[in-house]
Amino acid sequence: MVHGDSSAPGQQGYVTPAQENDYVAKMHAAPTAVLLDTFGMLGRLYNAKTTPDMFVIDPSGELIYAGAIDDRPTPDPEDIRGADNYVSDALTDAMAGKPVSTPYTRPYGCSVKYPD
Q1: pLDDT band at 4; cut points 50, 70, 90
Q2: Other CB atoms closer than 10 Å to residue 83's CB: what's the count?
Q3: Which domains does the chain have, with CATH numbers?
Q4: Residue 106, SS3 per DSSP
Q5: Cis peptide before 99 (omega within 30 of 0)
Q6: Contact 1, 31 (CB under 8 A)
Q7: Can you spell out the DSSP letters for 54-97?
Q8: What is the distance between the alpha carbons of residues 8 and 113, in angstroms, rounded to a whole number?
Q9: For the chain, which end, N or C, has fewer CB atoms within 10 Å of the first or last residue's CB respectively?
């Protein structure tokens, strides 16, 4: 799993590599990598509009899911319990060799602050 950040320097959400590493450690997250997309090249390629905006790409490079992480558009961590995790569902379908049952959902969160 790769975590990406497309916020430009001077914009809300921008972090340095050291700040991102500290945040990942603080959150006890374990991404395979963190991509700091400060020019917004990858974010724009996938048309990311919000943070978070989730994308699942299969081994052949096909985008098989895009949208929200789950069905609970709230910042309250307590609301995570019982949420339908769309990303997990997409990965489960794909790993079982099935088409993703819900390939797109509407993402929610703060807007991505791309550079001009």
Answers
A1: low
A2: 15
A3: 2-111 (3.40.30.10)
A4: coil
A5: no
A6: yes
A7: EEEE-TTS-EEEEE-SBS---S-GGGGTT--BHHHHHHHHHHTT
A8: 6
A9: C
Structure tokens at 48: 């990311």
Stated as kind and residue range, the H or E segment containing 4 is: strand 2-5
| Rama region for 109: left / alpha / beta (φ>0; ψ in -120 to 50; rest) | left
Residue 55 identity (one-letter amino acid): F
Q: Is 0.85 surpassed by the pTM of this model?
A: no
Residue for token pair 């949420």: 83
- The 10s digit of each residue's pLDDT in 103-116 is 999 999 888 888 87
**With contact defined as beta carbons under 8 Å apart, do 55 and 66 qualify?**
yes
- Residues 6 or more apart in contact with residue 38 via CB below 8 angstroms: 5, 6, 7, 8, 9, 14, 115
| Closest listed residue to residue 36, CA positions, set 57, 21, 58, 53 | 21
